[in-house]
Design a protein that fits this description.
Layout: E1 5-8, E2 11-15, E3 26-29, H1 32-40, H2 47-63, H3 70-84, H4 92-107, H5 113-143, E4 149-154, H6 169-178, E5 182-188, H7 195-207, E6 211-214, H8 219-224, E7 230-233, E8 237-239, E9 244-247, H9 250-259, E10 264-267, E11 273-274, H10 291-294, E12 295-296, E13 299-300, E14 313-316, E15 323-326, E16 329-331, H11 335-344
Parallel strand pairs: 4-5, 4-7, 5-6, 7-10, 8-11, 10-15
Antiparallel strand pairs: 1-2, 2-3, 8-9, 9-14, 12-13, 15-16
Helix pairs in contact: 1-2, 2-3, 2-4, 2-5, 3-4, 4-5, 5-6
The chain binds 5-S-methyl-1-O-phosphono-5-thio-D-ribulose.
5-S-methyl-1-O-phosphono-5-thio-D-ribulose binds at residues 45-48, 91, 156, 158, 162-163, 168, 193, 195, 233-236, 246-247, 312.
């Protein structure tokens, strides 16, 4: 599998996910502002991948600061961190990574600037390596829930491309395959960005895992016909009570899964859980450009000037979530206590 993002000399490069699967093209970032732009414009997307990008972006920014005093360095760094954290509002991994980098700057108080810059670059590499390792652990924990032969529905892309590598929801699918299970994936196409059709299908085909794409509208009908055994998605933010923010359309999939008595699993690292947020209604939901819906590429498909709503995420209340799979184990209802226990492990 191609890496999602990596250091390349003094630059950070990432696969331009807007061009996949037609073109495998690298997008090179020379400064932290390039990384902010890449996150805003969906060159890189997926909660954990955005976190990794934010860490690397801030390291890039730190390396460009030309001052001698630690205090001046910290001021400049905090200004960059303040801009980075606003790149996208819903995925909490972005804020998590920015806070982790800022804490490191605090811990380097009194050290010389060059040493702090080196430490920040190293930290960004550690965030990437840890993310891949965490995803493998999520995969290992989650694959125990997968029967020997299963048809698994997923929404959006929570795969290698949405993370540092391996994936969360698709990490569970990959681990099940590695364990010899015969999993077959049904991928919702996931309008309006088609992450399911373009990215999930691409990744799984590369790995030789059987995948079939459906329109988002077909998921309920397939469940009703007993053609889906379980659902697994990723998450952009999970509240302390287990409510889940994920790609728009996840909520209806979860409700339909419960109606049809199909387990609905969410796979995510602990960095996606926001213990500062009590319930899902407090999670900010990103509203994106109307053009993403009214146009296909640059061709306008709707009546010109039509009013459009384009929320990028929705909230699935915890009562629809059968289990949350993390690197520290699996949480089940009642979620408040179960999630607290995961953080203590
Ligand atoms: O708008 P996107 O493509 O960044 O949305 C991505 C998702 O909703 C994913 O399901 C989520 O970030 C989990 S990725 C492991």
């Amino acid at each position: 599998m191609i890496p999602t993002i990596e250091w390349r000399g003094k630059t950070v490069r990432m696969i331009d996910q807007r061009k996949l699967p037609g073109k495998i093209e690298w997008y090179t970032c020379k400064g932290y502002k390039d990384v902010i732009k890449a996150i805003e414009k969906m060159v890189i997307r997926g909660a954990p991948a955005i976190g990794v990008a934010a860490g690397m972006g801030l390291a890039l920014g730190a390396l460009s600061i030309r001052v001698r005093s630690y205090e001046k360095f910290k001021d400049r760094f905090e200004e960059m961190a303040g801009r980075m954290v606003k790149a996208r509002p819903t995925a909490v991994n972005l804020r998590w990574a920015v806070e982790r980098m800022s804490l490191l700057v605090d811990a380097m108080a009194g050290k010389d600037v060059e040493e702090t810059q080196r430490a920040l670059k190293k930290e960004s590499e550690t965030i990437l390596a840890e993310d891949i390792d965490i995803n493998r652990k999520i995969g290992k924990n989650g694959q125990r829930l997968i029967p020997k032969k299963a048809t698994i529905l997923t929404h959006c892309n929570a795969g290698s491309l949405a993370t540092g590598g391996y994936g969360t929801a698709l990490g569970v699918v990959r681990a099940a395959h590695e364990a010899g299970k015969k999993g077959e994936v049904i991928a919702d196409e996931t309008r309006p960005w088609f992450q399911g059709l373009r990215l999930t299908a691409f990744e799984l085909m590369e790995d030789g895992i059987p995948v079939t794409v459906i329109t988002d509208n077909a998921a309920g009908s397939l469940m009703y016909q007993n053609k889906i055994d379980l659902v697994i998605t990723g998450a952009d933010r999970i509240a302390a009570n287990g409510d889940v923010a994920n790609k728009i359309g996840t909520y209806q999939v979860a409700v339909l899964a419960k109606e049809n008595k199909i387990p609905f699993y969410v796979a995510a690292p602990l960095s996606t859980i926001d213990m500062g947020i009590k319930s899902g209604d407090m999670i900010p939901v990103e509203e994106r450009q109307p053009k993403e819906i009214s146009h296909f590429r640059n061709y306008e498909i709707g009546p010109s000037g039509v009013k459009i709503l384009n929320p990028a995420f929705d909230i699935t209340p915890n009562k629809y979530v059968t289990a949350i799979i993390t690197e520290k184990g699996i949480a089940k209802s009642p979620y408040k206590a179960a999630i607290k226990r995961l953080f203590k492990k």
